[in-house]
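Researcher: Next sequence.
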Amino acid sequence: MALSIGIVGLPNVGKSTLFNALNGGGAEAANYPFCTIDPNVGLVAVPDQRLDALVKIVNPQAIQHAVVEFVDIAGLVAGAASGEGLGNKFLGNIRECSAIAHVVRCFDDENVTHVNDKVNPVSDIETIDTELMLKDMESLGKYMERQQKLSRSGGNKDAETALAAMQSVLTALEDGITVRRQKHPSSVLEHIEPLNLLTAKPVLYVANVDDGSLPDGNAYVEQVRAYADAEGAEVAIVSAQIESELIEMDAADKTEFLSDLGLTEPGLNTVIRTAYKLLNLATYFTAGVKEVRAWTIHVGDTAPKAAGVIHTDFEKGFIRAETIAYNDFVTLGGEAKCKEAGKMRLEGKDYIVKDGDVLHFRFNV
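Model: Next structure:
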């Protein structure tokens, strides 16, 4: 499954406007439901000041940021789980994503239609959650039928254990509790993992506000924060309209515009970085005169696994990783000075790569 973030929400909450800003334009945005029929997909560079600092030291010929994939999925409505508003298609698009960025309308504007005729962010979130839970219940029900047949056919104990685990999840869903809010031991979760349930996916709530509510939000945002806190989710505040205007500006105008709004960087930067972490991703760097590059790995990956991101041969023939901590690299001013100061380490196959490590791999194939 692709490491992607699906942008979801009710129609007209600002999803496609946000996606356009993330992707530099391209997705149709309009003041009516279902203007997005097929999902738009964009690879977005992850803003990272550490990469900028490395570039200043190394002065490379090329620069490559880490990227995260965003998928703009059409607006869901009540009844989506039973096919309303092309719901089955859109729910299928969500299933293919690794995590969800749930855009919630947190602004009043009589010129922008609301599908329910009123702004109520918690109600909007619950509408989406309900449809996702209904689809999860359907998925669980079908899978449990197959497990029941296996159990009856030969007293399959594994099937019986799986059934008990799935029944506990299903019961909680029927009580209106999303899977990510349920508290189950890993022994239960491992049985439902293959089902790729929609409400088990991690969520980032993106509160879309008017420019007057930047940077701290408003009463609507506080409602979203309270809801997110209950499940340990993050909330990012953006004005999708402002972000779409920023992409049209040059650097000087952008800096001045952000300053007038009380911001030091675009709100999208927070969305992108938080989404990256939501996928349990980390970054290591390679830094040479030809290229300074940010490479994406999973948190907890070993050095050979990290090397394999560059090329599978690097992982197969891994010998060691010449490793410099980011802070040492920047403080001392580059690889050569780190070597002189004894700050370069040789790490083996069991080394867990740390976020920000500057690495050079030795391998033999």
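Model: DSSP finds 14 helices and twelve strands in the chain. The radius of gyration is 23 Å.
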